[in-house]
Amino acid sequence: MPVAIITGASKGLGRALGAALAGRGWDLVLDARTAGVLEETAAALSAYGTRVEALPGDVTDAGHRAELVAAARKLGGVDLLVNNASALGAEPLVRLEELGLEGLRRALEVNVVAALGLVQEALPLLRAARAGAVVCVSSDAAAEAYETWGGYGASKAALDQLSAVLGEEEPGLRVWAVDPGDMATDLYTAAVPEDDGPRPAPDHAASAFLRLLDERPAGGRYTASDLLEER
After folding, report:
1. pLDDT tens across the length of the chain (231 residues)
2. Fewer CB atoms < 10 Å away: N or C end of the chain?
3. Does residue 2 have a cis peptide bond before it, meaning omega lies within 30 degrees of 0?
């Protein structure tokens, strides 16, 4: 069966993607920082009958990234890498004049540096896969200027560019940056706690990611809303 590594997989979009893939028979290697929540997610997804390896840790740790890829290798390889783990830089978000530089460094380390590090670690297995693919979870804040979203948006813009260049350098792979749109997630609540308006559940956006895997369009930047509207 195909194997996927998903970071930030204990809840939100990462868990929704894991459930969508497990429902299709994919084996999974899941990462998150909180061990208890990750273990609960792994148990729930194992009910689909697939193999699920849950490895708690921080994606900025090179040793942890190596463990994720080693676990995938034992399952058969890496067909899909989903860089979903994200850091905001400040919780709640603040204007750039107030943004602590350590917070910005953390956002860049998690959202960009660790993402590239995991790609580098997994690249031999991705190249060997029948249809290797990389998905980097982006944001509309990478392309639009929103007050207080500067640090996070800058990190996601860098991730978009990294994805685009990776696609040029690795023509045998599909590399997609995907903006999932507004979702009801803990990340959004931490970013803007005063905004309690209704938002779609993450499993709605997960359907867009499945379409990419089904149709394998050219690498590039996509939005979940466009992918879902075209169906």
Report:
1. 999 999 999 999 999 999 999 999 999 999 999 999 999 999 999 999 999 999 999 999 999 999 999 999 999 999 999 999 999 999 999 999 999 999 999 999 999 999 999 999 999 999 999 999 999 999 999 999 999 999 999 999 999 999 999 999 999 999 999 999 989 888 989 999 998 888 889 999 999 999 999 999 999 999 999 999 855
2. C
3. no
Instruction: State which amino acid sits at residue 110.
Output: V
Rounded-to-integer distance, Cα 69 and Cα 140, Å: 29
Q: Supply the residues annotated as catalytic.
A: 152
CB 4 within 8 A of CB 25: no
How far is 59 from 106, CA to CA, in rounded Å?
A: 11
Cβ within 8 Å of residue 105, ≥6 positions away: none
Q: Tell me the whole-structure pTM to 2 decimals.
A: 0.96
Structure tokens, 188? 């959004």
Task: Tell me the two tokens of residue 78.
Answer: 């890496």
Distance of CA 44 to the CA centre of its chain: 19
d(CA 177, CA 76): 25
Question: Using an 8 Å Cβ cutoff, are 92 and 15 in contact?
Answer: no
113 secondary structure, DSSP code: I
Contact by Cβ (8 Å): 152, 97? no
As a residue count, the chain comes to: 231
Question: Cα 29 to chain center, whole Å?
Answer: 13
Run of H or E residues at 154 = helix 150-169
CA atoms within 13 A on the CB side of 110: 22
